[in-house]
Design brief:
Elements: H1 14-20, E1 24-31, E2 38-43, E3 49-67, E4 69-71, E5 77-79, E6 90-92, E7 98-100, E8 115-129, H2 137-155, E9 163-168, E10 176-182, H3 199-210, H4 250-258, E11 261-263, H5 265-277, H6 284-295, E12 303-308, E13 316-323, E14 328-333, H7 339-345, H8 348-356, E15 361-364, H9 369-381
Parallel strand pairs: 14-15
Antiparallel strand pairs: 1-3, 2-3, 2-11, 3-8, 4-5, 6-7, 8-10, 9-10, 12-13, 13-14
C-alpha cells in the first residue's frame, strides 16, 4: 500500500469563527422601486393574501457596520451597547492594518468606515397578511423566512448560501415582507422558475417536509418541540434560534400547498400579446422581443402593429409602442413579421422625416439583445 501524506488541518481562528457566526452588525437593504417583472397572488381564508413579486436585477446592499463586540485597550471583549451598534467601526491604522473601533473610542464618526458590498440580483418579494396576532409576529416572520429559504434552495436545487433572504420593514403591523435573492451577482435564473404555474406549491411541500410535517399537516417528529438541527437550526442562524418555532408556520405552508395562484393584469397582458403572435411566419423575433421587455421590467406595449401617422396617409407600420407614462417610443423590431413590409416602404429619409415630425422611432436589433435593451432604456430615459 503506498504511503499517503495527509495535509495538516489547522484549527479555525477566532476571527474566522466570528465571521462565520456573523457576530457583526450586518444589515441588508434592497431597492425594490423598479418595475415588477411578474407577480402571483395567492388568496386564502380569512382574507389572507400572499403576493409574490419577481424583480430582475434588484440592487441589494449589505452593510457591515461593526462587530457585535467592542475591543478595549486591555484587549478584553465586551458587548457593544445598543446605541453604538450602528456606528461605523473600522479604519486603517498607521501600520496599514484594519483596526476595530474600541468601546471607549471618542473620535468622530467621520474617522471610521462601514464596510459594504452592493450588486444586482434576481429577487423574489413575498408579502403576506394578515399574520397571526398573538404577540409572536417576530417569531412567525423569522421562522417563515428560514423555512422558505431552505425550501427554495431544495426545490430549485441550489447549494447552501446560494439563496439568501432578509426581512423588509413593513408599516402595516398585520403584514410581513421577506425578500429572497440569488446570492450570485447577476443571478443564474433560478428564482424566476418559482413564478411558473404551480411551482410555488412545490416550495411549500419542501418546506413542510423540512419542518417534519406531512402533506396533511401531521407531525412526523413530535419530539422536535420548536426546531432542531434536522430542520431549521444551523450554525449560521444561531443568533435567531430563540425566534424559530416551526409550529407557527404550519398552517400557512398548508394553505400555500393548495392555494390557487392568480396572475396580475400585467402578466395576463404579456401572455395575451405573446400568444397572439406565436405561430405566425417570422414571429420568433417579436416573441423574443416581448420576452426581453418583460424580463427587463418594461411595461407591456401600449399598442402593436399600427400605422403612423394616424391622422393622415400612413408612411409606415410600427411594430410596438412603449409608453412609460413619462416617455413614448415607436419600436421597429428587426426581422419581425412586418419587417419586409416596412423596410421597403420606409427608407432612411422617410424615417428621418417622421423623427423630424416628432415621432421617436427606435430600431430594435434582436441579434444584439443585451445592447439593444440597454440602448432602449437610455432612449426612453432621454
Amino acid at each position: 500500500m503506498p504511503n499517503v501524506r495527509v495535509a495538516k488541518q489547522t484549527r479555525i481562528t477566532r476571527w474566522e469563527e466570528l465571521r462565520e457566526s456573523r457576530a457583526f452588525v450586518i444589515e441588508d437593504s434592497a431597492e425594490v422601486d423598479q418595475p415588477v417583472i411578474r407577480s402571483l397572488v395567492l388568496k386564502g381564508p380569512d382574507n389572507t393574501e400572499a403576493t409574490l413579486s419577481f424583480y430582475k436585477e434588484c440592487q441589494i446592499t449589505t452593510i457591515n457596520f461593526r462587530s457585535e463586540f467592542a475591543e478595549k485597550q486591555d484587549r478584553s471583549k465586551q458587548e457593544v451597547p445598543a446605541d453604538l451598534r450602528h456606528k461605523p467601526g473600522y479604519r486603517l491604522n498607521d501600520s496599514g492594518e484594519w483596526e476595530l473601533r474600541k468601546s471607549d473610542e471618542h473620535t468622530s464618526d467621520d474617522d471610521w468606515y462601514a464596510l459594504y458590498v452592493t450588486g444586482s440580483h434576481d429577487a423574489l418579494l413575498l408579502e403576506i397578511g394578515p399574520v397571526p396576532d398573538d404577540g409572536k409576529r417576530k417569531e412567525y416572520q423569522v421562522t417563515l423566512r428560514h423555512a422558505l429559504n431552505l425550501a427554495l434552495s431544495l426545490a430549485l436545487r441550489q447549494g447552501p448560501g446560494e439563496i439568501r433572504s432578509f426581512d423588509i420593514p413593513c408599516s402595516e403591523p398585520s403584514k410581513v415582507k421577506i425578500l429572497f435573492y440569488e446570492a450570485t451577482s447577476g443571478s443564474a435564473g433560478a428564482l424566476t422558475r418559482v413564478m411558473e404555474d404551480g411551482y410555488f406549491r412545490l416550495v411549500a411541500e419542501q418546506a413542510l417536509e423540512a419542518l417534519h410535517y406531512g402533506r396533511n399537516g401531521e407531525d412526523l417528529m413530535p419530539q422536535c418541540a420548536k426546531a432542531c438541527y434536522q430542520c431549521l437550526l444551523d450554525f449560521q442562524n444561531q443568533r435567531e434560534h430563540k425566534y424559530i418555532d416551526r409550529t407557527l408556520v404550519r398552517d400557512t405552508l398548508l394553505w400555500m400547498l393548495t392555494a390557487e395562484a392568480q396572475t396580475t393584469d400585467d402578466e395576463n397582458t404579456w401572455q395575451q400579446l405573446i400568444s397572439e403572435i406565436c405561430g405566425r411566419p417570422g414571429s420568433e423575433n417579436e416573441k423574443t422581443f416581448l420576452e426581453l421587455l418583460r424580463e427587463n421590467g418594461f411595461p407591456p406595449p401600449a399598442k402593436h402593429h399600427y400605422p403612423i401617422p394616424e391622422e393622415t396617409s400612413p408612411i409606415a407600420e410600427i411594430d410596438y409602442m412603449i409608453d412609460t407614462g413619462k416617455s413614448r417610443v415607436h419600436v421597429l423590431v428587426d426581422g419581425s413579421v412586418h419587417h419586409d413590409k416596412w423596410i421597403h416602404q420606409i427608407d432612411e429619409n422617410k424615417r428621418q422625416g417622421l423623427r423630424d415630425a416628432g415621432y421617436r422611432i427606435f430600431e430594435f436589433d434582436v441579434s444584439k439583445a443585451a445592447e439593444s435593451i440597454k440602448k432602449l432604456k437610455e432612449f426612453l430615459a432621454g
